[in-house]
Specification:
By secondary structure, this protein is of the alpha/beta class. Among the domains are: 280 residues, Catalase core domain (Catalase HpII,  Chain A, domain 1, Beta Barrel), CATH 2.40.180; 68 residues, Up-down Bundle (Hemocyanin, N-terminal domain), CATH 1.20.1370.20; 161 residues, Rossmann fold. It contains 19 helices and 18 strands. The strands form 3 sheets. Strands 1, 2, 3, 4, 5, 6, 7, 8, 9 and 10 form a 10-stranded antiparallel beta sheet that branches. Strands 15-12-11-16-17-18 form a 6-stranded parallel beta sheet, with helices on both faces. Strands 13-14 form a two-stranded antiparallel sheet. Helix 5 runs parallel beside helix 10, helix 11 crosses helix 13 and helix 14 crosses helix 19. The structure holds CIS-heme D hydroxychlorin gamma-spirolactone 17R, 18S. CIS-heme D hydroxychlorin gamma-spirolactone 17R, 18S binds next to strand 2, strand 3, strand 4 and helix 9.
Length: 729
């Protein structure tokens, strides 16, 4: 929701070397006269030059032509994937020196503050699509370090659909809108996607994540991030350790309900973008801890999966995540196009101390990211765009090309040279020169996949096994929804076959909704990961019997649930509201860091019982329960009577109940709850504790009520009431 009350308090701008560098490129027209791009002042910006007042426009009008021509060229191609995104500036600080494992300078000292730019995105939709699509989210971080840029281009899910980059164009063609009619936008629920997935058993694990609530986050600020691939840390002695990168949000990992996501998509398609923007504007800076899982080189073959396979995680039970630093986003961009749209991330932007592995997905990405910027940003000089520049000066012999900005002096643009006294000189490793980890490779050239990549199902099972009951129900519903949108019965059937290889109960539940049987002998994965003339004779997708049957870290049920910071709570009130019942609860919630908004039948203000004006944030017309984490109805005879009689207010409450949110009412407003569908669903014998567990709080004393409400909101959602107590809304 857009906040109607805008504060004009100047924001504290966090100065970093990057913000200083960007400031040199910013323009502010305050107090200035208008001029053309060649600097000539414009006297009339309302009328083009004409032959007479009613005459035709003259070709001579350089002012009109310049303005229209520039406008005609304002658009650039959107990203082929991750087109829809939002960016923010911030800083990263290490908690302690990691120099034992990596020579990366930005991780070497806890006193260093590294500027960052982060871009979050959805994958499948176009630039203008909804934020709440069921999709993977991109989580791309550009660290502007003293040794050059390090881009950690990750996602909010730790695995990927495919094992080899050669399948990426197929995957993206399948998930994007279908080619004949460009439908559906920003959705995976269609035939081409599930056709591909049903033939790609290696995607089984990722599909579990995509059908889980991770695909519909409550906020970008409440998602985890993952580097996905196994990388290397290399220290000053040249010792390498494998490393997986994680981002852990300090507010925990939270999602919305699927019905809610679809609602938000219509009512505010910018929901995540707005949430991020508003949080930063109001000083609620989003924070994540950087986590690493470190595996010594000698343990490479210790696991029953391959570290080079991007469809696998390293369960946290096997290798714990060490939290090594904190990312804080503290400044919104000044200009969406110049910064967020023109930001160019590249997995190949690494700094000394960080290196690659032979993960075939990672290797393919190394080629793709520069290549795509050449078309998207119009040539090889995209690194000179302010947002992409490193904070260290660039010296090399690359020259010319479209839109070159740097004015290189001197005659020599080659190495070696003597005319330029040999400069720029190569850097020794001791001077920060990047040296690749000298991994020994002794192999035949071959187009093949390692057998250690062939187990596609044990980690899909691990994920499913690790979910709480409500999370599993959501997955069953998600599969039933998505496959329900698929027209082809063969595709549905083939998918049930894949699901039966993951979990028989899951397959049976989805089959029940689709009312088709689970195939008895699902087609074996013959794609598929194995060359056309490969031998499948001894192929068995279940060769791996993993010791670990469930991992607590995989369930969102176990996330942070001790804070209501930045949660949004709607107060439904009207004229005649009991001031104490409103202000006491408001103050308590705000004291705990939440955001309270007052919603009334009409805008602007309401009058309390004592005739005090209380500002209103939204009317029932411009607000909806899906924008809030909880709702409270304060007391006051007239206010309560008005709210009870407002169908939109009662719908607001029913919908909040359906989406399993905390709901509270002053005892004097209990009649409003009685007007809802859910009043009939709360058995009268419920004790106080049960009511709290179900997230419904009714009380006489506003202080006590506020305490209980805070406890309820911190639980995020009461998913357990979803099935047994579902209401129409
Ligand atoms: Fe990307 N990906 N990707 N990807 N990716 C792009 O680069 C690609 C993959 C990710 O906010 C593109 O600048 C290939 C995995 C993010 O600007 C493109 C393969 C992961 C972003 C590209 C992958 C990602 C991109 C499109 C398979 C998680 C948005 C525009 C080998 C670890 C970055 C662009 C931003 C963007 C290629 C797979 C994350 C075409 C070939 C795995 C977050 O270059």
């Amino acid at each position: 929701m857009k906040d109607d009350k805008k504060t004009d308090k100047p924001l504290k701008r966090q100065e970093t070397e990057k913000t200083q560098q960007l400031a040199e490129h910013t323009a502010d027209s305050t107090g200035e006269l208008m001029n053309t791009n060649h600097g000539v002042r414009i006297n009339d910006d309302q009328n083009s030059l004409k032959a007479g007042e009613r005459g035709s426009s003259l070709l001579e009008d350089f002012i009109l032509r310049e303005k229209i021509t520039h406008f005609d060229h304002e658009r650039i191609p959107e990203r082929v994937v991750h087109a829809r995104g939002s960016g923010a500036h911030g800083v990263f600080k290490a908690y302690k020196s990691m120099s034992g494992v990596t020579r990366a300078h930005f991780l070497s000292d806890e006193s260093l503050e590294t500027p960052v730019f982060v871009r979050f995105s959805t994958v499948a939709g176009s630039r203008g699509s909804t934020d709440l699509a069921r999709d993977v989210r991109g989580f791309a971080v550009k660290f502007y370090t003293q040794e050059g840029n390090f881009d950690l281009v990750g996602n909010n899910m730790p695995v990927f659909f495919i094992q080899d980059a050669i399948k990426f164009p197929d995957l993206v063609h399948a998930v994007k809108p279908e080619p004949d009619n460009e439908m559906p936008q920003a959705a995976s629920a269609h035939d081409t996607f599930w056709d591909f997935i049903s033939l790609m058993p290696e995607s089984a694990h990722m599909i579990m994540w995509l059908m889980s609530d991770r695909a519909i986050p409550r906020s970008y600020r409440m998602m985890e991030g993952f580097g996905v691939h196994t990388f290397r840390f290399v220290n000053a002695e040249g010792v390498s350790n494998f490393v997986k990168f994680h981002w852990k949000p300090l507010l925990g990992v939270h999602s919305v309900a699927w019905d809610e996501a679809q609602n938000i998509s219509g009512k505010d398609p910018d929901y995540h973008r707005r949430d991020l923007w508003d949080a930063i504007e109001s000083g609620n800076f989003p924070e994540w801890e950087l986590g690493v899982q470190i595996v010594p080189e000698e343990d490479e073959f210790k696991f029953d999966f391959d570290l080079l396979d991007s469809t696998k995680i390293i369960p946290e039970e096997l290798v714990p995540v060490q939290r090594i630093g904190k990312l804080t986003l503290n400044r919104n961009p000044d200009n969406f196009f110049a910064e967020t749209e023109q930001s160019a991330f590249h997995i190949g932007h690494v700094v000394p101390g960080i290196d690659f592995t032979n993960d075939p997905l990672l290797q393919g990405r190394l080629f793709s990211y520069t290549d795509t910027q050449l078309i998207r940003l119009g040539g090889p000089n995209f690194q000179e765009i302010p947002i992409n520049r490193p904070i260290v000066p660039v010296h090399n012999n690359q020259r010319d090309g479209y839109m070159r900005q740097t004015i290189n002096r001197g005659k020599s643009s080659y190495n070696p040279n003597s005319l330029g006294n040999g400069y720029p000189l190569q850097a020794k490793a001791s001077e920060g020169g990047f040296t690749s980890y000298p991994e020994r490779i002794d192999a035949k050239k071959i187009r093949a996949r390692s057998r250690s990549f062939f187990d596609h199902f044990s980690q899909a099972q691990l994920f499913y096994n690790s979910q709480s009951d409500p999370e599993r129900n959501h997955m069953i519903d998600a599969f039933s929804f998505e496959l329900g949108k698929v027209q082809s019965v063969e595709v549905r059937q083939r998918m049930l076959g894949i699901l039966s290889l993951v979990d028989k109960g899951l397959a049976a539940a989805v089959a029940f909704a689709l009312r088709i049987p689970v195939p008895q002998d699902p087609e074996l994965p013959v794609n598929h990961s194995i060359p056309a003339d490969g031998n499948l004779a001894d192929y068995d997708p279940f060769t791996v019997d993993t010791a670990l049957k469930a991992s607590a870290a995989l369930s969102m049920a176990n996330t942070v649930k001790d804070t209501i910071k930045t949660r949004k709570i709607a107060f439904l009130a009207a004229d005649g509201v009991d001031e104490k019942s409103l202000t006491t609860v408001k103050a308590a919630l705000e004291g705990a860091g939440a955001i309270v908004e007052i919603i009334s039948p009409r805008l602007n203000f309401i009058l309390s019982e004592g005739d005090e004006q209380i500002p209103v944030n939204h009317s029932l017309l411009t607000a909806a329960s899906v924008f809030y984490d909880a709702v409270y109805v304060p007391g006051g005879t007239n206010s309560v009577a008005t709210i009870e009689a407002e169908a939109d207010a009662v719908h607001f409450l029913n919908e909040a109940f359906k989406h399993c949110k905390a709901i509270a009412a002053d005892l004097g407003a209990a009649q409003v709850l009685e007007a809802t569908y859910f009043s009939k669903k709360i058995p009268s014998e419920f004790s106080d504790q049960t009511v709290l567990r179900e997230g419904i709080v009714v009380g006489e004393d506003p202080k006590k009520l506020a305490d209980q409400l805070i406890l309820a909101i911190s639980q995020h959602r009461f998913w357990e009431r979803e099935k047994p107590r579902k209401v129409p809304a």
